[in-house]
Amino acid sequence: MELDRILALDQAHIWHPYANPLDPGPIYPARAARGCRIELLDGRSLIDGMASWWCVIHGYNHPRLNQALYDQLARMAHVMFGGLTHEPGVRLAKTLVELTPEPLAHVFFCDSGSVAIEVALKMALQFWIARGEPGRHRFLTIRSGYHGDTWHAMSVCDPVTGMHHLFAQALPKQLFAPAPNCRFGEPCPDSEVAPIAELLDCHRHELAAVILEPILQGAGGMRFYSADYLKRVRELCDQYGVLLIADEIATGFGRTGRLFACEHAGIAPDIMAVGKALTGGYLSLAATLASREVAQTIAQGVPGVFMHGPTFMGNPLACAVANASIELLLEGDWQAQIRRIEQGLAAGLAPCRGQPGVAEVRVLGGVGVVELERPVPMRALVPRFVELGVWVRPFGRLIYLMPPYVIGEIELGSLCAAVGEVVAELPDLWARDNSP
């Protein structure tokens, strides 16, 4: 199918994410991907700085992950998880329990990161129902957070930076503490913890759980905060008898320099959600892990079962490739990969500091962020990056990089150089941009 026809059919029928259905802006048909490069239908090759929304950690078209899919496909592509089980799912659950902090011991598979958050919230609610406290039905979180696009997940996203303010009147009303201003690597003073402590004290009898993204807040602002803050929140949850949910969907499997971001603070949540990099970007799969106490409490309550069951829960293809992806990660020196990326991002993005329109440049692990003083001119910026041979998709006031772990130094340097070049052009791009 020729390029023009694909684009015409796309415009006629496809609704892209976060896009106007009638005028989505520039769309680039891809025909192949390998390593850290996406090949467009017109023949251009782009260095991927997004890891396809942070999940393709091993690069594209990896032979070992391909083989895992082929091998599983020869056995079975899918079987319902209600009343049945299978080796790939059992093996993956065992691995996740071994890798995540104690006392997480029970794994509930689901379809996507947003659904994993829905499951986590429902687990917390059913935990308190089983305990005879159904009034504990609200959640406390911190601003600048983002937990997904499904219904209750939207309710715990920042109502301003979380992109869901349009639905504010219909969503359940949750509680929000200020985002911590103590940065990663810094101590956390009492004044930073006081607001969330006050909310816990005032609302303890109606709170089911605190939910947050540990250390790295993703799509709500790409902020890195102090491990001491996370540790203090865990202590407060224990003090007030409130569950702690850790959203490790973006941070899990090494992105921040630890296998899971909770490890920076040496804490364990009561419930943890993982996704994105779980399958190395091959298939949609997520998991919600719960402590023994959470699982046993729900089991002893009424009706004695957890009331959730996705059709494609524990899909064997997805579990098989997830097992291969985790094995590949652990067999390699992923810590060295992340350190190398961190050093490359720090050096490569440093020239952006002090440029007109730049508020801050920050780097943590495999994440590099250039925060601007005003929203990015999306319709001008993305085509300019494509002209420079890179795939970078900014949002809000952020131009950021989260490349595959296997990216080489030359490719990483090219990504950073492209960001630097575009940042230098920002005043002119802002002047030319007509997007709302």
What key attributes describe this structure?
globular, 2 domains, 436 residues, 17% strand, 13 helices, seven-stranded mixed beta sheet, single chain, 38% helix, Aspartate Aminotransferase, domain 2, Aspartate Aminotransferase, domain 1, alpha/beta
Number of alpha- plus pi-helical segments: 13
Largest sheet: 7 strands, mixed
Shape: globular
β-strand percent reads: 15-25%
Share of residues in helices: 25-40%
What CATH architecture label of the largest domain applies?
A: 3-Layer(aba) Sandwich
The CATH superfamily title of the largest domain: Type I PLP-dependent aspartate aminotransferase-like (Major domain)
Low-confidence stretches: none
Mean pLDDT: 96
User: What is the CATH topology descriptor of the largest domain?
Assistant: Aspartate Aminotransferase, domain 2
Fold and architecture overview:
- By secondary structure, the chain is of the alpha/beta class.
- It has two domains: about 160 residues, Aspartate Aminotransferase, domain 1 (Alpha-Beta Complex); about 260 residues, Type I PLP-dependent aspartate aminotransferase-like (Major domain) (Aspartate Aminotransferase, domain 2, 3-Layer(aba) Sandwich).
- About 40% of the residues lie in helices and about 15% in strands.
- It is built from 13 helices and 16 strands.
- Strands 4-12-11-10-7-5-6 form a seven-stranded mixed sheet, with helices on both faces. A four-stranded mixed sheet has the order 1-2-3-15.
- It is globular and about 60 Å long.
